[in-house]
Write a sequence for this structure.
């Protein structure tokens, strides 16, 4: 075998890795939103109480966010490839269980299992990508990966609307199975890599603290959505979560083999990546939520029509991540991609704050430009931040860095949904004497104003943290 032939085969296997990892990323991100539109139908079908329906969303978020750091460590110990296929098969089995659920409790349990396997799948997939691609190919690979992640939430809403309307809510879970099985079959062509040997016992104290801390934060944010920010239960959960995560940091700084080595996050570039993606998700999860509400409750769109309005967002995300960030990553300073991306997302979000109940030509003048700007912003932020979060990591630290990056996304999504929903509800209540439609639209625009300000703050913080840094940190940073 000639050297050129061998190089071609290796390169082909590397790009196959990108394909299966992107499929898994679609599963993880899509399931964060696909069930949202199907929830009313599932509630009616299973006789679910109003006070319990949030568990369909919360159960997934709790186990996913709470187990991510443990999933990153397990991925390193098993080997990222083996962990990846385990996560895929487990996710598919949990999806079958949820789709066939005959009681609310079984559906809640299946969603929790999906989150648990996603917590193994997400860091294993990002780790495979980080250890497979280097040099110029790295930017292109992370561009495609980010395109799937950026478009995944919108695709989830689109698919959720279409499946719920034409096939039934159960197919919002069953649809995961063929994707997961095809990706699992494709893993046969992914280079195996090596498990991390001689890493000692699992840091049990750190594992328990991270699980409890992230779960308390995510659940606290979820309860704030229904109980309000004045609830003592909410503040106890949030304060407890912060205390547990503070204790986690203290423990990780002292143990010999930490679950998350502190130097992984200590470097300003990696910190900037986590800050940018956390605040991006705070704003964008609120954006998707209100676009779903606004198009259906104010404009009168069907679930399918509401989902289809997001196609522009998905297409723009692909352009931003593949054609812009994917080609420029490594050639320009990270700030030159991330800061304009955050500003574009802020512009798209703030454009919608001009909506009123009687606004005309909404689709052409407001929705489509906003979808394009936010999609471009997502693509330009997610591609470089995913690369920066794992650049230079070696051994088990790749899994830890991947898990921390995914955990930042989950915390941002949970906070954004709760915070912006609360702002919208309070603003709507303050306008109750002006007509229902006017009050509702005012609530949405107030929440989107907060989201836009958060994105502007994210741009400023990211610019400050990145400064003149041109490259992501090295392994020794």
């Amino acid at each position: 075998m000639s050297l050129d032939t061998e190089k071609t085969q290796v390169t082909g296997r590397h790009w196959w890795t990108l394909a299966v990892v992107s499929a898994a990323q679609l599963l993880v991100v899509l399931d964060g939103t696909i069930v949202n539109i199907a929830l009313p139908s599932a509630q009616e079908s299973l006789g679910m109480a109003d006070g319990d329906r949030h568990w369909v969303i919360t159960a997934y978020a709790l186990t996913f966010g709470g187990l991510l750091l443990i999933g990153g460590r397990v991925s390193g110990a098993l080997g990222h490839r083996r962990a990846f296929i385990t996560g895929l098969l487990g996710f598919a089995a949990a999806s079958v269980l949820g789709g066939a659920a005959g009681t609310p409790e079984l559906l809640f349990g299946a969603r929790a299992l999906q989150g648990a396997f996603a917590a193994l799948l997400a860091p294993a997939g990002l780790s495979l990508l980080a250890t497979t691609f280097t040099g110029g190919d790295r930017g292109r690979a992370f561009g495609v990966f980010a395109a799937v992640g950026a478009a995944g939430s919108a695709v989830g809403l689109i698919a959720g609307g279409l499946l719920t309307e034409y096939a039934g809510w159960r197919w919002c879970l069953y649809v995961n199975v063929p994707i997961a099985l095809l990706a699992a079959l494709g893993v046969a062509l992914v280079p195996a890599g090596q498990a991390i040997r001689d890493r000692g016992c699992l840091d049990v104290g750190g594992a328990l603290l991270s699980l409890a801390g992230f779960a308390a934060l995510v659940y606290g944010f979820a309860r704030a959505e229904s109980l309000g920010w004045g609830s003592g239960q909410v503040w106890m959960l949030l304060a407890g979560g912060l205390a547990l995560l503070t204790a986690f940091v203290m423990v990780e700084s002292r143990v010999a083999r930490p679950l998350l080595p502190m130097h992984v996050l200590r470097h300003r570039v990696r910190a900037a990546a986590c800050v940018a993606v956390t605040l991006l998700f705070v704003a964008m999860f609120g954006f998707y939520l209100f676009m779903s509400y606004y198009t259906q409750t104010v404009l009168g769109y069907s679930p399918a029509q509401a989902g289809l309005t997001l196609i522009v967002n998905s297409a723009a995300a692909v352009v931003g991540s593949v054609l812009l960030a994917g080609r420029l990553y490594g050639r320009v300073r990270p700030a030159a991609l991330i800061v304009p991306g955050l500003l574009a997302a802020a512009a798209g979000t703030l454009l919608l704050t001009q909506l009123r109940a009687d606004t005309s030509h909404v689709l052409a003048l407001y929705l489509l430009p906003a979808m394009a700007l936010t999609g471009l912003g997502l693509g330009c932020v997610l591609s470089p931040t995913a690369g920066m979060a794992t650049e230079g990591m070696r051994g088990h630290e790749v899994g830890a860095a991947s898990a921390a990056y995914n955990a930042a996304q989950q915390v941002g999504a949970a906070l954004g949904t709760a915070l912006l929903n609360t702002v919208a509800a309070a603003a709507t209540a303050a306008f109750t004497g002006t007509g229902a439609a006017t009050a509702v639209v005012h609530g949405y625009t107030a929440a989107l104003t907060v989201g836009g300000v958060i994105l502007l703050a994210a741009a400023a913080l990211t610019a400050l943290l990145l400064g003149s840094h041109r490259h992501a940190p090295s392994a020794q940073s």
DSSP finds 18 helices and no strands in the chain. Residues 1-10, 472-477 have pLDDT under 50 and may be disordered. Residues 56 and 108 are 5 Å apart (CA to CA). The longest helix spans residues 396-430.
